[in-house]
Design goal:
The complex is a heterodimer.
Chain A (H helix, E strand, L loop, with lengths): L11 H4 L2 H17 L3 H16 L5 H23 L4 H23 L3 H17 L5 H31 L6 H13 L2 H10 L6
Chain B lengths: L2 H19 L18 H9 L1 H16 L12 H5 L3 H21 L6 H32 L3 H8 L3 H21 L8
Chain lengths: 201, 187
Amino acid sequence: MLTSLYVEGRSWFHRLPVRAKLISLLLLSLSLFATQSLYLLAPAFLLSGWIYFSLGLTLRQALARVGFVFFTILFLAVVNLFLLPLNEVGALVLRLMALVFFAAAVTATTTISAFMDEITILLKPLERMGLLKAADVSLALGLVLRFVPDIFARYEAIREAHRARGLPIRPLTIIGPLIILTLKDADTIAAAIDARGFRRQ
Amino acid sequence: MNTRDLVLIALFAAIVVVLGLIPPITLGFIPVPITAQSMGVMLAGCIIGAKRGALSFLLFVLLVAIGLPVLSGGRGGLAVLAGPSGGFILGWAVAAYVTGIIAERFIHEGQPESRQFGGFFLASVVGGIIVLYGIGVPWLSTVTGTPLLAAATGSLAFIPGDLLKAAIATLAARAVYAGYPLLPARA
Protein backbone atom coordinates (compact mmCIF):
# COMPACT_ATOMS: atom_id res chain seq x y z
CA MET A 1 0.00 0.00 0.00
CA LEU A 2 2.75 2.43 0.91
CA THR A 3 5.38 2.13 -1.75
CA SER A 4 8.25 4.54 -1.50
CA LEU A 5 8.91 7.12 -4.21
CA TYR A 6 12.33 5.53 -4.73
CA VAL A 7 13.03 4.31 -8.27
CA GLU A 8 15.49 1.55 -9.09
CA GLY A 9 18.35 2.74 -11.18
CA ARG A 10 22.07 2.83 -11.72
CA SER A 11 22.59 6.45 -12.71
CA TRP A 12 25.52 8.37 -11.25
CA PHE A 13 23.10 10.24 -9.00
CA HIS A 14 21.89 6.91 -7.56
CA ARG A 15 25.45 6.00 -6.69
CA LEU A 16 26.25 9.22 -4.82
CA PRO A 17 26.26 8.79 -1.04
CA VAL A 18 23.01 9.93 0.62
CA ARG A 19 24.80 12.35 2.87
CA ALA A 20 26.40 14.09 -0.10
CA LYS A 21 22.99 14.45 -1.73
CA LEU A 22 21.33 15.85 1.37
CA ILE A 23 24.18 18.29 2.01
CA SER A 24 24.08 19.44 -1.63
CA LEU A 25 20.33 19.97 -1.34
CA LEU A 26 20.89 22.12 1.74
CA LEU A 27 23.72 24.08 0.12
CA LEU A 28 21.72 24.49 -3.08
CA SER A 29 18.73 25.94 -1.23
CA LEU A 30 20.93 28.32 0.76
CA SER A 31 22.84 29.53 -2.28
CA LEU A 32 19.80 29.86 -4.56
CA PHE A 33 18.05 32.03 -2.00
CA ALA A 34 21.18 34.19 -1.71
CA THR A 35 21.16 35.20 -5.37
CA GLN A 36 18.76 37.16 -7.58
CA SER A 37 20.77 36.80 -10.78
CA LEU A 38 19.05 35.03 -13.66
CA TYR A 39 22.49 34.12 -15.02
CA LEU A 40 23.05 31.89 -11.99
CA LEU A 41 19.48 30.68 -11.48
CA ALA A 42 18.84 29.61 -15.07
CA PRO A 43 21.86 27.24 -15.22
CA ALA A 44 20.92 25.88 -11.77
CA PHE A 45 17.40 25.20 -13.06
CA LEU A 46 18.70 23.46 -16.18
CA LEU A 47 21.21 21.44 -14.18
CA SER A 48 18.69 20.16 -11.60
CA GLY A 49 16.17 19.51 -14.36
CA TRP A 50 18.76 17.53 -16.27
CA ILE A 51 19.66 15.50 -13.16
CA TYR A 52 15.99 14.79 -12.42
CA PHE A 53 15.07 13.74 -15.95
CA SER A 54 18.15 11.54 -16.35
CA LEU A 55 17.18 9.23 -13.46
CA GLY A 56 15.28 6.73 -15.56
CA LEU A 57 11.74 7.85 -14.73
CA THR A 58 9.41 8.01 -17.69
CA LEU A 59 8.44 11.55 -18.62
CA ARG A 60 4.88 11.02 -17.43
CA GLN A 61 5.94 9.64 -14.01
CA ALA A 62 8.51 12.37 -13.61
CA LEU A 63 5.98 15.11 -14.31
CA ALA A 64 3.31 13.51 -12.11
CA ARG A 65 5.65 13.67 -9.12
CA VAL A 66 6.36 17.38 -9.37
CA GLY A 67 3.18 18.45 -11.16
CA PHE A 68 1.22 19.57 -8.15
CA VAL A 69 4.07 21.61 -6.68
CA PHE A 70 4.74 23.18 -10.09
CA PHE A 71 1.09 24.08 -10.39
CA THR A 72 1.28 25.99 -7.09
CA ILE A 73 4.51 27.69 -8.13
CA LEU A 74 3.08 28.78 -11.49
CA PHE A 75 -0.18 29.91 -9.92
CA LEU A 76 1.70 32.11 -7.45
CA ALA A 77 3.92 33.33 -10.29
CA VAL A 78 0.84 34.54 -12.18
CA VAL A 79 -0.28 36.40 -9.05
CA ASN A 80 3.24 37.82 -8.69
CA LEU A 81 3.19 39.15 -12.25
CA PHE A 82 0.73 41.80 -11.10
CA LEU A 83 2.77 42.75 -8.05
CA LEU A 84 6.45 42.39 -8.89
CA PRO A 85 8.80 43.30 -11.77
CA LEU A 86 9.13 40.61 -14.46
CA ASN A 87 12.76 39.64 -13.86
CA GLU A 88 12.08 39.10 -10.14
CA VAL A 89 9.18 36.78 -10.93
CA GLY A 90 11.43 34.89 -13.35
CA ALA A 91 14.11 34.54 -10.68
CA LEU A 92 11.60 33.26 -8.13
CA VAL A 93 10.13 30.67 -10.49
CA LEU A 94 13.52 29.39 -11.65
CA ARG A 95 14.85 29.18 -8.10
CA LEU A 96 11.87 27.23 -6.75
CA MET A 97 11.68 24.89 -9.71
CA ALA A 98 15.40 24.18 -9.50
CA LEU A 99 15.01 23.32 -5.83
CA VAL A 100 11.96 21.14 -6.42
CA PHE A 101 13.70 19.24 -9.23
CA PHE A 102 16.74 18.61 -7.07
CA ALA A 103 14.69 17.60 -4.04
CA ALA A 104 12.60 15.24 -6.18
CA ALA A 105 15.83 13.77 -7.58
CA VAL A 106 17.15 13.09 -4.06
CA THR A 107 13.85 11.44 -3.10
CA ALA A 108 13.78 9.29 -6.23
CA THR A 109 17.30 7.97 -5.72
CA THR A 110 17.35 7.30 -1.97
CA THR A 111 15.86 4.25 -0.31
CA ILE A 112 13.99 4.48 2.97
CA SER A 113 16.68 2.52 4.78
CA ALA A 114 19.38 4.87 3.50
CA PHE A 115 17.34 7.82 4.78
CA MET A 116 16.83 6.12 8.13
CA ASP A 117 20.56 5.53 8.53
CA GLU A 118 21.18 9.26 8.06
CA ILE A 119 18.35 10.17 10.42
CA THR A 120 19.74 7.87 13.09
CA ILE A 121 23.05 9.74 12.81
CA LEU A 122 21.30 13.13 12.96
CA LEU A 123 19.43 12.02 16.08
CA LYS A 124 22.62 10.99 17.91
CA PRO A 125 23.14 14.40 19.59
CA LEU A 126 19.53 14.38 20.83
CA GLU A 127 20.02 10.85 22.10
CA ARG A 128 23.12 11.88 24.00
CA MET A 129 21.14 14.70 25.61
CA GLY A 130 18.64 12.07 26.73
CA LEU A 131 15.74 13.61 24.80
CA LEU A 132 14.82 10.57 22.75
CA LYS A 133 16.06 7.24 21.51
CA ALA A 134 16.86 6.80 17.83
CA ALA A 135 15.62 3.22 18.08
CA ASP A 136 12.21 4.53 19.19
CA VAL A 137 11.97 6.63 16.03
CA SER A 138 12.67 3.60 13.85
CA LEU A 139 10.19 1.55 15.89
CA ALA A 140 7.48 4.21 15.48
CA LEU A 141 8.17 4.40 11.75
CA GLY A 142 7.93 0.64 11.46
CA LEU A 143 4.63 0.67 13.38
CA VAL A 144 3.15 3.22 10.96
CA LEU A 145 4.11 1.13 7.93
CA ARG A 146 2.78 -1.98 9.66
CA PHE A 147 -0.59 -0.51 10.62
CA VAL A 148 -1.59 1.66 7.65
CA PRO A 149 -3.04 -1.33 5.71
CA ASP A 150 -4.92 -2.48 8.83
CA ILE A 151 -6.41 0.96 9.44
CA PHE A 152 -7.35 1.29 5.78
CA ALA A 153 -9.11 -2.10 5.92
CA ARG A 154 -10.97 -0.83 8.98
CA TYR A 155 -11.98 2.32 7.09
CA GLU A 156 -13.36 0.14 4.29
CA ALA A 157 -15.27 -2.00 6.79
CA ILE A 158 -16.87 1.12 8.31
CA ARG A 159 -17.71 2.37 4.81
CA GLU A 160 -19.36 -0.95 3.97
CA ALA A 161 -21.30 -0.78 7.24
CA HIS A 162 -22.60 2.64 6.13
CA ARG A 163 -23.62 1.23 2.75
CA ALA A 164 -25.36 -1.74 4.32
CA ARG A 165 -27.49 0.63 6.38
CA GLY A 166 -28.11 3.01 3.50
CA LEU A 167 -26.33 5.87 5.27
CA PRO A 168 -24.45 8.54 3.33
CA ILE A 169 -20.66 8.27 3.73
CA ARG A 170 -19.66 11.40 5.62
CA PRO A 171 -16.25 12.09 7.15
CA LEU A 172 -17.85 12.83 10.50
CA THR A 173 -19.52 9.46 10.92
CA ILE A 174 -16.40 7.66 9.71
CA ILE A 175 -13.60 9.46 11.56
CA GLY A 176 -14.98 8.93 15.06
CA PRO A 177 -15.32 5.12 14.90
CA LEU A 178 -12.09 4.81 12.91
CA ILE A 179 -10.07 6.64 15.56
CA ILE A 180 -11.67 4.92 18.54
CA LEU A 181 -11.28 1.43 17.04
CA THR A 182 -7.66 2.11 16.09
CA LEU A 183 -6.48 3.74 19.31
CA LYS A 184 -8.15 1.03 21.43
CA ASP A 185 -5.54 -1.35 20.03
CA ALA A 186 -2.74 0.75 21.53
CA ASP A 187 -2.66 -1.16 24.84
CA THR A 188 -2.45 -4.56 23.17
CA ILE A 189 0.27 -3.41 20.78
CA ALA A 190 2.24 -1.76 23.59
CA ALA A 191 1.99 -4.93 25.69
CA ALA A 192 3.19 -7.00 22.72
CA ILE A 193 6.18 -4.70 22.20
CA ASP A 194 7.13 -4.79 25.88
CA ALA A 195 6.69 -8.55 26.07
CA ARG A 196 9.24 -8.93 23.30
CA GLY A 197 11.62 -6.55 25.03
CA PHE A 198 12.12 -4.38 21.95
CA ARG A 199 12.75 -1.27 24.01
CA ARG A 200 14.94 -2.93 26.68
CA GLN A 201 13.16 -1.34 29.60
CA MET B 1 7.88 8.11 27.29
CA ASN B 2 6.24 4.76 27.87
CA THR B 3 5.54 2.23 25.15
CA ARG B 4 1.82 3.02 25.10
CA ASP B 5 2.49 6.67 24.25
CA LEU B 6 4.92 5.62 21.54
CA VAL B 7 2.28 3.31 20.06
CA LEU B 8 -0.42 6.03 20.25
CA ILE B 9 1.88 8.44 18.42
CA ALA B 10 2.58 5.91 15.68
CA LEU B 11 -1.07 4.84 15.36
CA PHE B 12 -2.22 8.43 15.05
CA ALA B 13 0.35 9.11 12.35
CA ALA B 14 -0.96 6.01 10.57
CA ILE B 15 -4.54 7.31 10.90
CA VAL B 16 -3.45 10.58 9.28
CA VAL B 17 -1.93 8.57 6.42
CA VAL B 18 -5.24 6.72 5.96
CA LEU B 19 -7.20 10.00 6.07
CA GLY B 20 -5.11 11.00 3.05
CA LEU B 21 -6.34 7.93 1.16
CA ILE B 22 -10.00 8.81 1.66
CA PRO B 23 -11.32 10.60 -1.45
CA PRO B 24 -11.82 14.33 -0.80
CA ILE B 25 -15.38 15.61 -0.53
CA THR B 26 -16.60 18.56 -2.55
CA LEU B 27 -19.26 20.82 -1.16
CA GLY B 28 -21.40 23.05 -3.33
CA PHE B 29 -20.76 26.28 -1.48
CA ILE B 30 -16.97 26.05 -1.03
CA PRO B 31 -14.66 26.05 -4.08
CA VAL B 32 -11.87 23.95 -2.54
CA PRO B 33 -12.44 20.20 -1.99
CA ILE B 34 -12.08 19.15 1.62
CA THR B 35 -9.46 16.50 2.30
CA ALA B 36 -9.95 14.53 5.47
CA GLN B 37 -6.20 14.62 6.04
CA SER B 38 -6.12 18.36 6.64
CA MET B 39 -8.30 17.80 9.70
CA GLY B 40 -5.56 15.60 11.15
CA VAL B 41 -3.81 18.45 12.97
CA MET B 42 -6.95 19.48 14.82
CA LEU B 43 -7.86 15.86 15.58
CA ALA B 44 -4.36 15.00 16.84
CA GLY B 45 -4.24 17.90 19.31
CA CYS B 46 -7.81 17.39 20.50
CA ILE B 47 -7.61 13.62 20.85
CA ILE B 48 -4.13 12.63 22.02
CA GLY B 49 -3.04 15.98 23.47
CA ALA B 50 -0.24 18.46 22.85
CA LYS B 51 2.94 16.44 23.26
CA ARG B 52 1.82 13.22 21.64
CA GLY B 53 -0.05 15.10 18.90
CA ALA B 54 3.03 17.12 18.00
CA LEU B 55 5.30 14.06 18.03
CA SER B 56 2.78 12.22 15.88
CA PHE B 57 3.02 14.96 13.27
CA LEU B 58 6.82 15.12 13.49
CA LEU B 59 6.72 11.42 12.65
CA PHE B 60 4.32 12.10 9.79
CA VAL B 61 6.58 14.83 8.36
CA LEU B 62 9.47 12.37 8.64
CA LEU B 63 7.45 9.95 6.49
CA VAL B 64 6.99 12.70 3.91
CA ALA B 65 10.67 13.61 3.98
CA ILE B 66 11.96 10.07 3.46
CA GLY B 67 9.91 9.73 0.30
CA LEU B 68 6.70 7.96 1.24
CA PRO B 69 3.67 9.22 -0.70
CA VAL B 70 1.62 9.82 2.45
CA LEU B 71 0.12 13.22 1.64
CA SER B 72 -3.38 13.24 0.19
CA GLY B 73 -3.33 12.56 -3.54
CA GLY B 74 -0.28 10.33 -3.17
CA ARG B 75 2.19 13.20 -2.88
CA GLY B 76 5.34 13.11 -0.80
CA GLY B 77 9.09 13.44 -0.85
CA LEU B 78 11.44 16.33 -0.33
CA ALA B 79 10.03 18.14 -3.38
CA VAL B 80 6.81 18.95 -1.52
CA LEU B 81 8.76 20.35 1.41
CA ALA B 82 10.86 22.46 -0.97
CA GLY B 83 7.74 23.84 -2.68
CA PRO B 84 5.68 26.90 -1.72
CA SER B 85 3.45 25.08 0.77
CA GLY B 86 6.32 23.42 2.65
CA GLY B 87 5.72 25.78 5.57
CA PHE B 88 2.24 24.41 6.13
CA ILE B 89 3.59 20.86 6.32
CA LEU B 90 6.41 21.81 8.67
CA GLY B 91 3.96 23.90 10.70
CA TRP B 92 1.67 20.94 11.39
CA ALA B 93 3.60 19.77 14.45
CA VAL B 94 3.44 23.23 16.05
CA ALA B 95 -0.23 23.56 15.17
CA ALA B 96 -1.01 20.18 16.73
CA TYR B 97 0.92 21.20 19.85
CA VAL B 98 -1.00 24.46 20.29
CA THR B 99 -4.31 22.69 19.61
CA GLY B 100 -3.40 20.14 22.26
CA ILE B 101 -2.37 22.76 24.84
CA ILE B 102 -5.72 24.55 24.50
CA ALA B 103 -7.74 21.33 24.49
CA GLU B 104 -5.95 20.06 27.60
CA ARG B 105 -6.59 23.34 29.40
CA PHE B 106 -10.27 23.72 28.52
CA ILE B 107 -11.63 20.20 28.43
CA HIS B 108 -12.36 18.41 31.68
CA GLU B 109 -14.50 15.47 32.60
CA GLY B 110 -17.92 16.25 33.98
CA GLN B 111 -18.25 19.54 32.11
CA PRO B 112 -21.50 20.21 30.30
CA GLU B 113 -21.34 18.93 26.74
CA SER B 114 -21.64 22.40 25.22
CA ARG B 115 -18.50 23.62 27.01
CA GLN B 116 -16.57 20.65 25.68
CA PHE B 117 -17.76 21.41 22.16
CA GLY B 118 -16.71 25.04 22.67
CA GLY B 119 -13.30 24.04 23.99
CA PHE B 120 -12.56 21.66 21.11
CA PHE B 121 -13.72 24.22 18.56
CA LEU B 122 -11.56 26.97 20.08
CA ALA B 123 -8.55 24.63 20.15
CA SER B 124 -9.11 23.58 16.52
CA VAL B 125 -9.50 27.15 15.28
CA VAL B 126 -6.55 28.62 17.19
CA GLY B 127 -4.16 25.71 16.62
CA GLY B 128 -5.33 24.33 13.29
CA ILE B 129 -6.08 27.62 11.55
CA ILE B 130 -4.46 30.66 13.21
CA VAL B 131 -1.16 29.05 14.20
CA LEU B 132 -0.91 26.99 11.01
CA TYR B 133 -1.50 30.00 8.73
CA GLY B 134 0.76 32.06 10.98
CA ILE B 135 3.60 29.74 9.96
CA GLY B 136 2.55 28.70 6.45
CA VAL B 137 1.67 32.10 4.98
CA PRO B 138 4.89 33.99 5.90
CA TRP B 139 6.85 30.93 4.70
CA LEU B 140 5.01 30.96 1.36
CA SER B 141 5.55 34.70 1.09
CA THR B 142 9.30 34.34 1.74
CA VAL B 143 9.76 31.42 -0.63
CA THR B 144 7.70 32.70 -3.55
CA GLY B 145 8.24 36.42 -3.08
CA THR B 146 4.50 37.09 -3.09
CA PRO B 147 4.01 40.09 -0.77
CA LEU B 148 2.80 38.96 2.65
CA LEU B 149 -0.42 40.96 2.45
CA ALA B 150 -1.38 39.45 -0.91
CA ALA B 151 -0.58 35.92 0.31
CA ALA B 152 -2.64 36.49 3.46
CA THR B 153 -5.58 37.90 1.49
CA GLY B 154 -5.42 34.98 -0.93
CA SER B 155 -5.47 32.41 1.83
CA LEU B 156 -8.71 33.91 3.17
CA ALA B 157 -10.41 31.86 0.44
CA PHE B 158 -9.57 28.73 2.43
CA ILE B 159 -10.94 30.00 5.75
CA PRO B 160 -14.61 28.96 5.27
CA GLY B 161 -13.50 25.41 4.44
CA ASP B 162 -11.18 25.42 7.43
CA LEU B 163 -13.93 26.54 9.78
CA LEU B 164 -16.05 23.68 8.51
CA LYS B 165 -13.13 21.29 9.14
CA ALA B 166 -12.80 22.68 12.65
CA ALA B 167 -16.50 21.99 13.20
CA ILE B 168 -16.19 18.40 11.94
CA ALA B 169 -13.02 17.89 14.00
CA THR B 170 -14.83 19.25 17.07
CA LEU B 171 -17.69 16.77 16.70
CA ALA B 172 -15.31 13.87 16.00
CA ALA B 173 -12.99 14.79 18.89
CA ARG B 174 -15.90 15.07 21.28
CA ALA B 175 -17.22 11.67 20.09
CA VAL B 176 -13.82 10.09 20.74
CA TYR B 177 -13.56 11.88 24.10
CA ALA B 178 -16.90 10.42 25.12
CA GLY B 179 -16.06 6.94 23.83
CA TYR B 180 -12.39 6.52 24.66
CA PRO B 181 -10.84 9.52 26.43
CA LEU B 182 -7.08 9.85 25.95
CA LEU B 183 -6.63 13.57 26.49
CA PRO B 184 -6.35 13.41 30.31
CA ALA B 185 -3.66 10.70 30.24
CA ARG B 186 -0.97 13.18 29.31
CA ALA B 187 2.36 12.09 27.94
